[in-house]
Amino acid sequence: MSEIDAIRNLVHFYCDAVCNDNRDALKELWAEDAIWNVGRGPVAGKTAIGKALDIAMDLFESVNQMTFNGTADLKEDSGVGRWYMCEFAKARSGKTL
Fold first, then answer.
1. Which residue range forms the structural domain that includes residue 31?
2. Measured CA distances, 72 to 3, 24, 67 (Å)
3. Would you list the DSSP string of 68-91?
4. Per the CB 3.0–4.6 Å rule, which of 23, 42, 55, 59 could disulfide with 37?
């Protein structure tokens, strides 16, 4: 499997974990020195990302997340990527998003 195909698989595993509210699987996808940024400022480190994911996922009764196109720039031991996602969600408040 090529490196870019491995990254694409990682993105799909991420979406699957979100859709199934599988937080353990979701947290295992991150490296210790990872940085997650979904537009509200970066969250750095696996532990901090796990806490941020718990806070975010606690807001929702269900989430259906789909992935579209994306890119990744890979170096020897690091990489930066961006993917476009679409989400349909139902908040615990009952509001459909």
1. 3-91
2. 9, 24, 14
3. EEEEEEE-SS-EEEEEEEEEEEEE
4. 42
CB contact burial 23-34 (16+ within 10 A = b; e otherwise): eeebbeebeeee
77 bridge partner residues = none
Write the DSSP symbol of residue 35.
E
Q: Is residue 55 part of a domain?
A: yes
Indicate the Cα dihedral angle 37, 29, 73, 52, nearest 10°: 10
| Tens digit of each residue's pLDDT (9 = 90 or more) over 46-83 | 999 999 999 999 999 999 999 999 999 988 888 888 99
Q: Assign residue 30 the CATH number of its domain.
A: 3.10.450.50
Domain count, the chain: 1
CA distance 69 to 52: 25
Is 97 part of any domain? no
In a domain, residue 96? The reply is no
**Angle at CA of residue 21, ends 6 and 12, nearest 5°:** 20
